[in-house]
């Protein structure tokens, strides 16, 4: 009888240990799943308005910086060169501020241009000086129209107060860029048309 009780005790002990290991594994699995969830939510999904704005605004800013650098090297017209310089200075500053805000809120910041924008930059890099100025200003008008529309929407749609404040603060500069781009683009087109009429 004592031997039988001894076996029962051993079996019960082994069962308890097995259950304890099973519970420990369950807890470990739950903790791992929670860690994965936390890791995922550390960076907000791009389908939220705030994250989408960070993505769009950063890409637009990087495009205008790279285009501005090209203009400083390749443009013939001095005003176009100076506009390119303004693009680099203003958008680099705005991009740094936006990146700082986004990083503080664990929002994903694109590390480089997407394929569409990069193709546009690469195409402009191949243009000779004669064709560069007009195409550059045409792109700058188009890009800043989109920037202004995106930032105007952001001032009402964003939920994060810091991002919304950034959009409100940056919008007047973008509107100034758009006006300057339109004026310079019109001036270049008039000059180009006048030269064509002389031929």
What does this structure look like?
The protein is mainly alpha-helical and 199 residues long. It has a single domain (45-198), classed as Ferritin, CATH 1.20.1260.10. Helices cover 86% and strands 0% of the residues. It has helices at residues 2-42, 49-74, 78-104, 115-125, 129-157, 161-198. α2 (49-74) runs antiparallel to α5 (129-157) and α3 runs antiparallel to α6 (161-198). The protein starts with a helix and ends with a helix.
Instruction: Tell me the strand percentage band.
Output: under 5%
Q: What is the CATH topology classification name?
A: Ferritin
CATH superfamily: Ferritin, core subunit, four-helix bundle
Helical proportion, percent range: over 70%
Oligomer: single chain
When the domains are counted, the total is 1
Instruction: Give me the Rg, rounded.
Output: 29 Å
The termini sit apart by 119 Å
What shape does the CA trace take?
Answer: elongated
Q: Mean pLDDT, as a whole number? A: 82
Contiguous runs where pLDDT drops below 50 for at least 5 residues = 6-13, 29-44
The CATH class is identified as Mainly Alpha
- Tally of helical segments: 6
């Amino acid at each position: 009888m004592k031997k039988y009780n001894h076996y029962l005790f051993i079996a019960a002990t082994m069962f308890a240990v097995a259950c304890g290991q099973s519970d420990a594994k369950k807890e470990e699995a739950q903790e791992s799943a929670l860690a994965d969830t936390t890791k995922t939510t550390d960076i907000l999904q791009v389908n939220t308005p705030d994250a989408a704005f960070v993505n769009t605004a950063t890409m637009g800013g990087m495009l205008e910086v790279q285009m501005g650098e090209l203009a400083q090297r390749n443009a013939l017209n001095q005003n176009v060169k100076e506009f390119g310089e303004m693009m680099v200075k203003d958008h680099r500053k705005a991009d740094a501020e936006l990146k700082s805000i986004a990083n503080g809120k664990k929002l994903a910041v694109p590390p480089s241009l997407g394929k569409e924008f990069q193709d546009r930059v690469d195409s402009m890099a191949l243009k000779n000086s004669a064709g560069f100025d007009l195409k550059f200003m045409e792109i700058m008008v188009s890009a800043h129209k989109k920037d202004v529309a995106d930032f105007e929407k952001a001032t009402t749609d964003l939920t994060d107060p810091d991002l919304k404040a950034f959009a409100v603060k940056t919008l007047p500069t973008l509107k100034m860029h758009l006006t300057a781009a339109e004026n310079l683009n019109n001036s270049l087109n008039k000059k180009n048309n006048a030269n064509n009429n002389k031929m």
